[in-house]
Amino acid sequence: MSESKNFPDAFYRVSVRGIMIKENKFLLGRHGEDSTWETFGGGLDFGEELQDALKREILEETGCEVSYISDKPILALPHIVHNKRGLDWFYNFPIYYEVKFDESKVDFSLQYSEIKWFTLEEIQSLNLFEGEEGIGEGFKSLVKKNK
Q1: How many CB atoms lie within 10 A of CB 132?
Q2: How high is the mean pLDDT of the chain?
């Protein structure tokens, strides 16, 4: 079998991410170790259902049980990531669902040092986690839908 000229051999990482939206603001968590901001979620394990993976990831990262997940994804923002996980580059394919959980119960001893609601304008100037660089533009479409 020959290699395709159009599709390079690559590692593709599928992740599921939860977006909490309230009054056109978005809840993000800040990593304590690198001070970057991100939505909640993580990598999809082989054979795992998308919504099950999202519930698992949010529980692992925040200690919170998810009370709502949208039936269908509301956003997808594939992009390339450089120099992470021991690879020169790989494709990341995050799939976003709207979620709800009780943010007052976040366990800050897990992954996040802080959580905060941001407007779309505020997100544009944040130091975002490298896998979330497209959320500013992606969230614009969500704000338009909610108007």
Answers
A1: 23
A2: 87
- Decide: residue 98, CB within 10 A, 0-12 exposed, 13-18 middle, 19+ buried: middle
The total of structural domains in the chain comes to: 1
Number of CB atoms found within 10 A of residue 97's CB: 22
Q: What is the pLDDT confidence band of residue 1, given thresholds at 50, 70 and 90?
A: very low
| 33 within a domain of the structure (yes/no) | yes
Would you say 140 and 120 are in contact if contact means Cβ atoms under 8 Å apart? yes
Domain assignment present for 4: no
* Residues 8 and 131: beta-carbon distance below 8 Å: no
Q: pLDDT tens across 121-145, in order?
A: 999 899 888 777 778 778 877 776 6
Dist. CA 139–CA 96, nearest whole Å = 11
